[in-house]
Amino acid sequence: MSGESALHIRLVECLERHVHERHPTERGLLMLLDHDSYGRDRPHRVNGYCPDLFASDLPATFEILGEAKTGPDLERPRSHAQIAAFLDHLSLQACGWFYLCVPPLSVGRGRQLLKRLRTPSRALVNVEVITLG
Predict the structure, then answer these.
(1) 91 occurs within a structural domain
(2) Is 1 within a domain?
(3) ω into 59 cis (within 30 of 0)
(4) Which of 56, 94, 106, 131 is least surrounded by Cβ atoms within 10 Å, i.e. has the fewest?
(5) CATH of the domain at 44
(6) How many structural domains are present in the chain?
(7) CA angle 28, 29, 30 (to 5 degrees)
(8) Rounded-to-integer distance, Cα 52 and Cα 27, Å
(9) Are 43 and 50 in contact (CB under 8 A)?
(10) Are 82 and 48 within 8 A, CB to CB?
(11) Could you read off the pLDDT of 80-95 as tens digits, one per residue?
């Protein structure tokens, strides 16, 4: 994460808070973030891309991937390919969640992008756009 903008770091921290609040578990939640506070415990690559957040309950009954995007980054073709790759991976899980965290002014664009990327094969993935707040 070194070299990331202060906004991107705040978006990743927002993802972390949201997942902890939304997915409390009795037996624990394995969470890895692409954030300096996690040291070397970073998310593994998924279909060639490293998500900002990976989480799963223990024992695994669901899997969560999260991605933080600034406004300009949300428009890049690489970001679209990355999100599509994450949705493809999650579509193979018994229960998959994808969270996209964007700045407040990019929420509409984030929803539009996810709607466009939700093909029939990805329809069972739970998706949500979240923002700072």
Answers:
(1) yes
(2) no
(3) yes
(4) 94
(5) 3.40.1350.60
(6) 1
(7) 120
(8) 23
(9) yes
(10) no
(11) 999 999 999 999 999 9
Question: Which two structure tokens, joined as six digits, stand for 2?
Answer: 């070194």
The answer to whether residues 98 and 69 touch, using CB atoms and an 8 Å cutoff, is no
Largest CA distance in the chain: 39
**What is the C-alpha to C-alpha distance for residues 133 and 115, in angstroms, rounded to an integer?**
23
Cα gap 93→101, rounded to integer Å: 21
Q: Which domain holds residue 75?
A: 6-131
Q: Which residues pair with 30 in a beta bridge?
A: 56
Calculate what percentage of the chain has a pLDDT beyond 70.
95
Which three-class secondary structure state does DSSP give residue 108?
helix
Counted residue by residue, the chain has a size of: 133
Two tokens, residue 99: 């969270």
Q: One-letter amino acid identity for 1?
A: M
Residue 31 phi/psi, 5-degree rounding, is -135, 130
- Which phi and psi angles does 100 have, rounded to 5°? -115, 120
Q: Quick check: pTM over 0.90?
A: yes
Specify whether the CB–CB gap between 82 and 52 falls below 8 A: no
- Residue 85 has a pLDDT of 98
